[in-house]
Amino acid sequence: MMSTTGTFHGATPRAPRTTGWVGWLAVATALSLATSLVASAKCSMIAVHTSEADGAVASSDADAITRFGPIRSHLGRLHGEVISHPVLLSGTDQSWTVRLTTPAGTGINGVPVTVEAYMPVTGDRMPTRPVARYIGDGQYRIEGLRFTRAGWWNVGLAVRFAFGGDSLAFNLILAR
Fold it and tell me: pTM to 2 decimals?
């Protein structure tokens, strides 16, 4: 029993036992769910390198894991896709070409696009200020990307329309 001073007298309280079949079932279910979530996340990301000279795409798990699209924006007003980028390495300046379209596939032309890149795990931001410049046919050139180190990076685009705005994010994990 507990006294009015908050101390226990007599037997000390014990946590309930969960070693029965119900406890083991809960543990097995949690492990199964965690395993399927990890497998799903790996399947939804692809590793790519794009040569800007010829637009060729080659896979390699050694350098980067990316999710470059096509992806739907947060509010569903647009879709985005990174259509070209150099080999993804930390410590080098990067320029990407991104295509923005309506859900119907029409290019989004000449709207203001703001770029922000950071590491979700640490909150670190790029030392540079990336800039998006419209180059035609719904395509925007993003210049000034510099990933300072290996790890998970989020490159967010905020798009402003006459009727409001929307945003989307590309994710990548740099191995080096």
Answer: 0.64
